[in-house]
Amino acid sequence: MQFFYHPDLVSHPVFELLPDEARHCLKALRKHAGDEISITDGCGRLATAQILSTEPPTRCVVQLLKVDHQHALRPHRFHLAIAPTKNADRIEWLVEKSIEIGIEQISFLRCEHSERTNLDLTRLQRLAIAAIKQSNTCLIPEMQLIDFSNFIDSPAIQSIHHRYIAWCADDLPRIEFALQPLQGQDAMLLIGPEGDFSPTEVQLALQQGFTAVSLGPRRLRTETAGLYGVCVYAGMQV
Amino acid sequence: MQFFYHPDLVSHPVFELLPDEARHCLKALRKHAGDEISITDGCGRLATAQILSTEPPTRCVVQLLKVDHQHALRPHRFHLAIAPTKNADRIEWLVEKSIEIGIEQISFLRCEHSERTNLDLTRLQRLAIAAIKQSNTCLIPEMQLIDFSNFIDSPAIQSIHHRYIAWCADDLPRIEFALQPLQGQDAMLLIGPEGDFSPTEVQLALQQGFTAVSLGPRRLRTETAGLYGVCVYAGMQV
């Protein structure tokens, strides 16, 4: 089954697919009026719709038949907060793979030691749309780019009981992320840039109730650490 | 600390670095006679060596000072047996990330539904050398390309008590891989090609004592499924 994307499945029962989606539907998949297709809005909804009329290659009017408002969403949320890598490809790879395995929120942190402080969120959003279509999931994670100091002070993070900071320095006792009792629990994991979090950032996080964790015996690259966290959390939810 | 690679740390205490390694050592890192460097053989050994003499850019003679024969090896082995993806990049990515997180053996399976039946193992070996140097680990996983039928009949797999086949079909009861008691245990995980294992292949595996497992609620791409297995196993070993 092929999912299509449309940002709004709530306002109108009859609408036109976006031009690129229509092209994919009519040209690549050769759908016709009368055919049924599946459409997600990336916010958890999955609709069954019928094609009413077409004007190839880019016009395709559909009518919603039914909408599942919580399609295969996980009951609990994983929020990854991670410093973007110097190489943008590696963050794009992380976004794609995380969506495939399961993630609800990604905050990209501007840290003291960050080598990259800008990020093309529009491009990441496009990648995320492609990723949910490819993996037949319905949730585009919320994504933001934010300074570490603003992030760590935001009230929203206080509501998550299980919040962790992965940190490479060896001078602080740390527990293993993979051993935390996170089944059925929301969780947040912070991962620093190539040069790691600064001591000030670590102190701020600890003051805000974060627990320092290790991601195993090896020093992983930033994006690998992120995906390890995503996989281990997903494994705990089965 | 930067690791260098040399395939033989056993036969001779004094030897020349490979030309590419010497270039990296002398030109990029500007090492000189008298400096100490770390060298791995990709078989688990890590040596401290002293540079005796140099002829930049490609000649660098070193003398071993001490050799750790089991550097940071995991006490237990994870063997991933996976059908190569149509797109070779995705398998290369899997090899690189798996080495970073931890893997001891990779068998690339030629399956009935395989879209790719050839594989450049020499190139993968080069990639693996780069990956161990990058991630400061000392083990290049054993890698082979093998027909599914030969693999499943090989006596070696019988010695691994925990052997699993990940399979997407829904008509067989499956248990969750992430819930298996694999801490301190060797394990083997089979992952099929884009078109999944054939029913015959699944039957053969079950006859050979493999247990059918699920890798969570989502249908993952082949290489994502592989890395999920690698991460979950690594998380169980901490």
Describe this structure in words.
- Chain A is an alpha/beta fold.
- The first copy, chain A, has two domains: 3-68, Ribosomal Protein L25, Chain P, CATH 2.40.240.20; 78-236, Alpha/beta knot (3-Layer(aba) Sandwich), CATH 3.40.1280.
- Helices cover 31% and strands 27% of the residues of chain A.
- Chain A has seven helices and twelve strands.
- Chain A has helices spanning 19-28, 88-101, 121-135, 148-153, 155-158, 199-207, 222-236, and strands at residues 3-5, 14-16, 36-40, 46-55, 59-68, 78-82, 105-110, 142-147, 162-166, 175-176, 187-191, 211-214.
- In chain A, the strands form two sheets. Chain A has a seven-stranded parallel beta sheet with strand order 8-7-6-11-9-12-10, with helices on both faces. A five-stranded mixed beta sheet of chain A has the order 1-3-4-5-2.
- In chain A, strand 4 and strand 5 (59-68) form a beta hairpin.
- The longest helix of chain A is centred in the middle third of the chain and has 15 residues, at 121-135.
- Chain A is elongated.
- Chain A starts with a strand and ends with a helix.
- Chain A binds chain B through residues 72, 93, 97, 100-102, 135-137, 176-179, 214, 216-221, 224, 227-228, 231-232, 234-238, and chain B through 72, 93, 97, 100-102, 134-137, 176-179, 214, 216-221, 224, 227-228, 231-232, 234-238.
